[in-house]
Amino acid sequence: MRLRLVPADARPGPATDDLSTEPADELLDELLDLALRVAREAAALVRTRREEGVQVAATKSSITDVVTQADRDSEELIRTRVLSARPGDGLLGEEGSDSTGTTGVRWVVDPIDGTVNYLHGLDQYAVSIGVEVDGRVQVGVVLNAATGDEFTAVRGRGAHRNGRPIRAAARVALEHAVVATGYNYELPIRARQAQAVASLVVRIADVRRLGSCALDLCAVAAGQLDGYVEEGCNPWDYAAGGLVAEEAGAVVEILTGASGRRLVVAAPGPSYAEFLGLVTSCGFTAHGA
């Protein structure tokens, strides 16, 4: 699987010159406003639950892949608010929501991206809401529930942090690059990732493991990271953050990783080709991906 997303400053091009099928500005404004309002309410709920004390409610793929009641309640709040305002839309959520809808609009939701951080009181967890129109993400909101930082993007309009425009970093030599990654919850996949990271870390300046795909992509967008690579991500992890990164001038690709799972690769546009070559040579990608 190879899905190529292009940075905002690469438009218009042959595939995007015809704007007749692009969503109307009024619809995009409505979707952004609703996504931001709902994300703020969900983030407030998540913060309140953290202050009250958090317990593991269940596990999923492994004993370290945890779910809290706050994850479930945040998703239910988002689902209720979105479908009350737009009852014909579809919604896909990490904690089980999956409806197709009839409008061509689908909300892709991670109610708490970075649940392990949330459980341990580390300030890297976010409400992530991406909105697809006819199968393409057009609106993205990532709200760090711990710090209140808001990352937003609308396709073709650039990316913003707390209302101010952001841009990905300029090209940097790989030996000076700071790169984020993550580890899968399944141990065989994690072992392969560790081998790839061991090869990577001696060829760049340093590696960061921050624990939230959505926030890592936003850090690429804000020029704080020079690259990001992680296998095992799902659409709700990268839908919103991927658009924020694209609109800030990064390239984001969804490839096939060495263990056969979705691999997210992101870097500023001028650095992307070299970064992709590096992660491929380090063993992150499947053969020929």
UniProtKB/TrEMBL annotation:
Q: In which pathway does it act?
A: Amino-acid biosynthesis; L-histidine biosynthesis; L-histidine from 5-phospho-alpha-D-ribose 1-diphosphate: step 8/9
Per the UniProt entry, the Enzyme Commission number(s) are: 3.1.3.25
What is a biological process (GO) this protein takes part in?
inositol metabolic process
Q: Which residues form a coiled coil?
A: none
Q: Which reaction does it catalyse?
A: L-histidinol phosphate + H2O = L-histidinol + phosphate; a myo-inositol phosphate + H2O = myo-inositol + phosphate
- Is the Disulfide bond keyword given for this protein? no
What sort of enzyme, by top EC class, is this?
Answer: hydrolase
Which controlled-vocabulary keywords does the entry list? Hydrolase, Magnesium, Metal-binding
InterPro entries according to UniProt: IMPase, Inositol_monoP_metal-BS, Inositol_monophosphatase-like, Inositol_monophosphatase_CS
Respond yes or no to whether keyword Metal-binding is given for this record.
yes
Specify which residues bind Mg(2+) according to the UniProt entry for this protein. Answer: 94, 110, 112-113, 237
Which co-factors does it depend on? Mg(2+)
* Residue ranges of the region described as Disordered: 1-23
Q: Name one GO molecular function term.
A: metal ion binding
What parts of the sequence cross the membrane? Answer: none
Q: What does this protein do?
A: Catalyzes the dephosphorylation of histidinol-phosphate to histidinol, the direct precursor of histidine.
Which protein family is it in? Belongs to the inositol monophosphatase superfamily.
Would you tell me the protein name for this molecule? Answer: Inositol-1-monophosphatase
Q: What species was this sequence derived from?
A: Nocardioides pocheonensis
